[in-house]
TetR family transcriptional regulator
Amino acid sequence: MAKTPAPARKGRGRPQNGAPDLSKAQIVATALRLIDEKGLEAFSIRSVARALGCYPTAIYWYTPSRHVLIAEIITVVLRDVLPDAGLDWQDWLRALFTRYRAAIARHPNAAPLIGVTLVSNASVDVDLVEAVLAKLHDAGFRGASLINAYNAVIGAMVGFTTQEFAMLPPDAESLREDLAGFPDRIDANRHPLLAQLSGQMIGAAFILRWQNGATQPMTGAFAMYVEAFVTGLDRLPREGGAASS
Amino acid sequence: MAKTPAPARKGRGRPQNGAPDLSKAQIVATALRLIDEKGLEAFSIRSVARALGCYPTAIYWYTPSRHVLIAEIITVVLRDVLPDAGLDWQDWLRALFTRYRAAIARHPNAAPLIGVTLVSNASVDVDLVEAVLAKLHDAGFRGASLINAYNAVIGAMVGFTTQEFAMLPPDAESLREDLAGFPDRIDANRHPLLAQLSGQMIGAAFILRWQNGATQPMTGAFAMYVEAFVTGLDRLPREGGAASS
DNA sequence: CGGTCTGTTGTGCGGTGTACAATAAGCCCG
DNA sequence: CGGGCTTATTGTACACCGCACAACAGACCG
């Protein structure tokens, strides 16, 4: 509430209670709350410190850098994406993709963090890796094909949803106005399908939208994407194949 | 070369030749060159100005904001992704994905810009939209299914490659060291497949890598991903389906 | 020849991540 | 019980960022 540091307790030094004022969990939770409520741009070390009523440098006692803090936010967001292990491999993949999307939908403003920072960093979720490998092994994938399938699955899981919830430029309003007049500018001879479908696509389709999945979800497209990928995977050869690098 | 503004010409006012010193194309090209050569983090309005030997605010004469400049960089990177229109719809989609990936591979450090900023903004590439719609119409998709398929295709095109070329944290070295000792920490009882495959996966697979597609391309995984998606798309119902929103 | 347009130089503000010093309270050990 | 070590924080400082805005000089046009 106060202007800049807003210290609940004044003066330097260790707090008097014996217990710390801050904690890593509290910092991560506050950061995520800021992202959820005010958008990704409102998140910074300093804004988290402001919200917690401490100096920015106090944050650094619990986390070594902005990047690591982001990594910790990601692991919180991606909690509980693993589906029930009892499912058939195809249903399991469908559930995995859906649960991943649901996790992002719960914190849409955090989506770019994951897409940009690579799924990796920080704590490797070994259970996720093993589970994907296990289900693909169930499906019959072996050797280099198994690893390629693993990468294809992770890429597919993260890829679509990251796009769906991608951040928009801050001048979304001008983008909207731009697209409002767009149908009139289409040359029906050169772009007949676009001319015919623009009414349904403006504001709802990639490249022609000004809002992201938080307000304009692409549920139908996502379902089709998952279905195409999973059923397509079933029709692929499952052995051999070159390694990636 | 000079310290801060490094003006080739001194003093204020309009240049004497009659021709401007700068141009939008030059600014975009310089920005992209900086990104390619020194990484995305080295790109800023101020760094571009430094490279051009002008004041940062001179950049604003040609572009209204950082976001718009980024949008212009994106359109340059994504030039020439459209494949030959004569191809069969499935081959055309394969070619589209491959050409998109090749474009990103030419400027890997720019990958996060596209993934984050949404494919949209700035100049809508109507030819791309129309071409995708046309090929999916060729495939028999109609109505809501056509639009869903369009979104699935764009999401698939951008999604995987964005992940493959996602930026890594600046402390990649410590990540590498961390992952070097990773195989020894795997409990072979709890994670048997990971224990067996970690040797092939460390450094080359999502979540277990410390480099991105610029140095560790996932060619095999990408091929499998494309193949699964395209052949899967062929087996989907092509009419009806609910709209997304 | 005066005014307006153009394309710069320059100044300034509020923001950022984070390195580093200062400091005070709790804790442990002799 | 007292001195030093550890802990958790306040403060200061620096180099960077995007960008708003003023100043201004040359070109161009009536």
User: Anything to note?
Assistant: Chain B touches chain A through 89 residues (CB under 8 Å). Chain B has a mean pLDDT of 90.
